[in-house]
Write a structure and sequence with these properties.
Alpha-Beta Plaits; two-stranded antiparallel sheet
Length: 113
């Protein structure tokens, strides 16, 4: 099993969610986060004063999947989140040792479906 974590631009969330549904993902966790990469923030003008925005708003998705579905999930995220502009985000894939569905006690792959 794997945990796929993606950090994407907020306005791409609906597109990514639709793409994940098409490849059979049944559940995701979404968190609003802030960060920066190569963009390193930017300056904005507010009421005549210029200020630096160091951290940009992003959305973090976490999806637990079986090993055989990892490539489809990564591909769906990469294609649907792509704008061909800097700051599109990143996808991380980590090993997932154990999953337990609290309500039923099901474990691992059974808990993911």
């Amino acid at each position: 099993m794997k945990m796929v974590t993606a950090v994407i631009k907020p306005f791409k969330l609906d597109d990514v969610r639709s793409a994940l549904s098409e490849v059979g993902v049944q559940g995701i966790t979404v968190t609003e986060v802030q960060g920066f990469g190569r963009q390193k923030g930017h300056t904005e003008l507010y009421r005549g004063a210029e200020y630096v925005v160091d951290f940009l708003p992003k959305v973090k998705l976490e999806i637990a999947v079986t090993d055989d579905r990892v490539e489809a999930v990564v591909e769906a995220i990469a294609q649907s989140a792509n704008t061909d502009r800097i700051g599109d985000g990143k996808i991380f894939v980590h090993a997932l040792e154990q999953v337990v569905r609290i309500r039923t006690g099901e474990t691992n792959a059974d808990a993911l479906s």
